[in-house]
Amino acid sequence: GENVEQHPSTLSVQEGDSAVIKCTYSDSASNYFPWYKQELGKRPQLIIDIRSNVGEKKDQRIAVTLNKTAKHFSLHITETQPEDSAVYFCAASIGTGGFKTIFGAGTRLFVKA
Amino acid sequence: EPEVTQTPSHQVTQMGQEVILRCVPISNHLYFYWYRQILGQKVEFLVSFYNNEISEKSEIFDDQFSVERPDGSNFTLKIRSTKLEDSAMYFCASSEGQGKNIQYFGAGTRLSVL
């Protein structure tokens, strides 16, 4: 079945710096890749997503890149702020509706003021 | 803004008891999901549901688990005979379908099995 690896498990950056989180997936049939932010004790919330027919997507300070050949996708956060501190999960999904979504292990991001 | 609601927020039960976790998905959504998150660990897919039947399930979703859409608004997860290791946060999610893949998560039910 699908397996998603996520690195690093912990990331500490200075406010204003960039943060990059990387994921790899195993099943080449995966076609949808969401990224979720989870603050302590809260629900996961989608921050950005990308489909397999797109190589890059950007939304203000957040961007995601996808390399289908290498089965890699990455989250880039620029100009980090203390409120970006949270756990970030990548995920890979197969299907067109009733997705089986497999999450990575998560990256705990600390942004130091 | 419409959101997925889950009840109760915290459920405490004795080992071996049955529990039912309840979810009200967003009203025009067609796909429903249950996930589990053990404290400090990743979110794990349990099951997806569409058109009144399971469309995908994981290895975790064994015979102890079942899902149901008993009426037009609720979506439930039943655990037949709870085990200590079932203690976790259970999240319900829903998505619109029709090519719109974004899954919206509820606030979760924390299940504590004693």
* Structural class designation of chain B: mainly beta
In what range is the share of β-strand residues of chain B?
A: over 45%
Shape of chain B: globular
Question: What is the H/E string of chain A?
Answer: EEEEEEEEEEE
The helix-strand sequence of chain B is EEEEEEEEEEE
Separate helix tally of chain B: 0
Low-confidence stretches of chain B: none
Radius of gyration of chain B: 13 Å
Query: Roughly what is the average pLDDT of chain A, rounded to an integer?
Result: 93
Catalogue the unreliable spans of chain A.
none
Oligomer: heterodimer
Radius of gyration of chain A: 13 Å
- Measured between the Cα atoms of the first and last residue of chain B, the distance is 36 Å
Specify the biggest β-sheet of chain A. Answer: 6 strands, mixed
Helix content of chain A: under 10%
Supply database-style keywords.
heterodimer; A: 113 residues; mainly beta; 6-stranded mixed sheet; 5-stranded antiparallel sheet; 11 strands; 0% helix; 58% strand; globular; B: 114 residues; 7-stranded mixed sheet; 4-stranded antiparallel sheet
